[in-house]
Amino acid sequence: RWALEAATRRLVVVMPARALSTPMPGKATLDAGHLLDGLLKSPPPDAFRVAAVTTAALHAPDLDAVIGYARIGERAIIYSTHLLPRYANEAQRRGRVRRIIDHELGHTYGATHCENDCVMRDADGSASVDDLPAHYCPEHRTMMQARVKEGPAHP
After folding, report:
1. Residue 56 φ then ψ, to 5°
2. Is the per-residue pLDDT at 4 higher than 80?
3. φ and ψ at 141, to 5 degrees?
């Protein structure tokens, strides 16, 4: 909750836990895209964004494992605590979660991956989530600020 409130500067309402999906037969991970579809079916009407957190491992189209997932311009994000290192201290865990949230929210604001010193750099390649900077580049910061200002009207 704290990471979402910090990232969006909005009140975060924690809704009751609910089952969204189960792994497909033969898969040990949950389909993050399918989970997003479930979140988008019935979001609260005044919701700016909808986020889900799971302890289960996630996969996305063309990716075996993801720690977070969002689609460009949609209102939902999901992230998993499954790959968060158990050895990290609280400050390291919070920093990692904040970067994941900021990165996935960036996609909901319309941002694609960035080559600049930006939290929107692609963490799928050689860089890990821990290597991402804790900020947006000027272009993505302007985009984020505009979307947050638009509120629930976007998208």
Report:
1. -80, 155
2. no
3. -65, -45
Has residue 5 got a pLDDT over 70? yes
**Dihedral sign, CA of 20, 75, 104, 149?**
negative
SS3 content of the chain, % helix, strand, coil (to 5): 35, 15, 50
Backbone angles phi, psi at 115, to 5 degrees: -90, -10
Say which DSSP state 29 is in: S
Q: Per DSSP, what are the bridge partners of residue 101?
A: none
The whole-model pTM stands at 0.86
Confidence of residue 131 (pLDDT cuts 50, 70, 90): confident
Sheet with 76-80: list strands edge to edge. Answer: 50-54, 76-80, 68-70
